[in-house]
Amino acid sequence: MGTGDVTNGLAARYSAAFAVYLADRSELALGAAYDLGREAVKAQLSVLDVADAHHSAMRDVRAGDDATLSAAADFLRESLSTFETVHRGYIEVQEVARLEHEYVQQLRALADASVAINSSLTVEAILQLTADTARGVVHAGRATIAILAQDPRHRPLTATSPPRLSDGDAHPARISAHLTGRGKELGVLEVVDEHHRVFSARDEAILTQLAQLASVAITNAQLYERERTIARTLQRSLRPGALPPVHGLSAAVRFRPAGEGIELGGDFYDLFAAGDGAWTALIGDVQGKGPDAAAVTALARHTMRAAAAYESRPSGVLRLLHKALRDQTGDEGRFCTVCYAHLRVGWGEVELDLACGGHPLPLVVHPNGRVTPVGQLGTLLGSDIEPQLTDVTVTLGHGQVLVLYTDGVTEVRRRRQEVFGHRELVALLETCAGLPPDAVAERVETAVLAASEGRLRDDVAILAFGPTPQPKETDG
């Protein structure tokens, strides 16, 4: 049946029902108008179609008295009541859809914020991201977040969005959510808007979720910062920092910890007076990372400093260190490699006794660009096997530089392929002829960082030294 037939059929039934109502004026007869309206809605006819049917019925009746017109208005109103109900339902559905869409958008913004906030390592960045998200997710005028500083002597940390707040209402609408971490209150997140704004329960729920998310991120960031501070403090305590001045000796050091510095590495170096005018230079590497490796590093440095006061033979000092490692670590298997040199600094030359316990042999850069290893390979310290250690005497003359290094220099890998190893180090040192120790160490560090693209997988330590050039004598 076509639309025209449906409309004509409705018009005919409308006229008949209308005539009955005019004669009866009962509620039952008026109910027919409601049924006709439902029929029109079901047939997907419009209000105009019903109006045309009503107009046709009025024309058939040909009555113009007030009572008839009033009855006609009642009949039309009843027939259109279904349309009104449907329209209200449509509006309500639209409103529900709008609210659901807004909620989905809020959840999506919250998810995006979660990724950004949890990717931030600093508390300050987390606070600003949280304030920006809070303002945007509930469409408020401004948002403020404040947390207590870890040090009670410092002022609370705050962030606002927008960063510069203008004067607003004297009594703005506001909602807030508390931030908590590890059972303690961290601070509060608050959003404010114009005084006539009414925040919904959904706004409060979203803000609470954001506050919980920020609380976890802030707590983690504070823990990370605390651990990083501890790690840096321990790293500084395990390294002597700047080398002491030694008359007649030019020395330089470069040290780069791997990663973010949150995990303690095992590379160390030292240069200190050993008594009777002699000096000790050493470089070492402890297996592993973390607190256990740091403990072994401290044990190694302090043992060698103590032993150097009464033992001048490098092999003797390293054997004492081996025994200390075995006694201290037992069966835990903490190993250590060390290159140890006992220096006697003279006029224009440095004579040294050298022993290597499982450590790469140092390299001498000669004035003509030739690079040669010196010393004799020894075995690892701290293992079950008694170490094989050999003292070798080396004399450094004018223009010669001795380079000690850890395996972080010669084991630079990228995508599982070695990009800077022993061969590359030798080739680089061959270009350093005539350079002072500081320039040599600088070149090595720069090359390693470039090869690793700034992402070191292991600590890098470089210690270079040689005799200080003597001024030329002039005829007086």
Automatic annotation (TrEMBL):
Residues 49-228 form the GAF domain. The keyword Hydrolase applies. Residues 249-467 form the PPM-type phosphatase domain. Gene3D superfamilies: 3.30.450.40, KaiA/RbsU domain (1.10.1240.30), PPM-type phosphatase domain (3.60.40.10). Keywords: Hydrolase. GO terms for molecular function: phosphatase activity. The keyword tRNA-binding does not apply. This is SpoIIE family protein phosphatase. It comes from Solirubrobacter ginsenosidimutans.
